[in-house]
Amino acid sequence: MKVILVRHAQTEWNQRGIIQGHMDSPVTKRGALETSALLEALTDAAYPTDCVYASPLGRAWHMGQALADCFLCPLVAESALKEQAFGHYEGMTREQIQSNYPSEAESLFARDAQFCPPDGESLTQASQRVINFLHSQQAVAPHQTICIVSHGQVSQGVLALLKEGRIDNFSSYAQPNASYSVLDLAGDKCVTLRWGIATHLLKLL
């Protein structure tokens, strides 16, 4: 099964450095330009996509709608594709967390995939639910090409697990808004992975 993994376009909270998690904020004007650039790039690549699955959070759903229209295929909301839940840190900036919760901030920002924010989930837990979704899709449609629209943090964990078999190095798989990765899944293995494709965004600089 081929998977096109897309990160949503820039939002107002992305721009302001606010942690979103399961909260949301509108796509910016730049985000709209990023979406257009991504659609053009994927049209040129001519991926024969059978279905788009998107996180139901507004910023990802907005991108999912654009992609489904581009690919002329169905769009399905999938809660397993949501961002990592950051609990009571959502809606706060990094600086606010470091000021208000200094000991917790050290764990949150130490690249610790096992750290679970209060009332949230760890990156390991969030990434595994996406992996479980991919495996379930592979079981029912092994020869399809699907597009999934998710979020920055959880996508890093997913890519690390698929590429390396462990999540420790997830920060190496960071990617900008409206970038995409291409995965070829065979059984329990990811046989090909191209991640963080963002050349289509260079013209926006």
UniProtKB/TrEMBL annotation:
Pfam families: His_Phos_1. SUPFAM superfamilies: Phosphoglycerate mutase-like. InterPro entries: His_Pase_superF_clade-1 (IPR013078), His_PPase_superfam (IPR029033), Phosphogly_mut1 (IPR005952). The keyword Hydrolase applies. Keywords: Gluconeogenesis, Glycolysis, Hydrolase, Isomerase. One of its GO terms (molecular function) is hydrolase activity. It comes from the Bacteria. Its EC number is 5.4.2.11. PANTHER family: PHOSPHOGLYCERATE MUTASE. Belongs to the phosphoglycerate mutase family. BPG-dependent PGAM subfamily. This is phosphoglycerate mutase (2,3-diphosphoglycerate-dependent). It comes from Serratia fonticola.
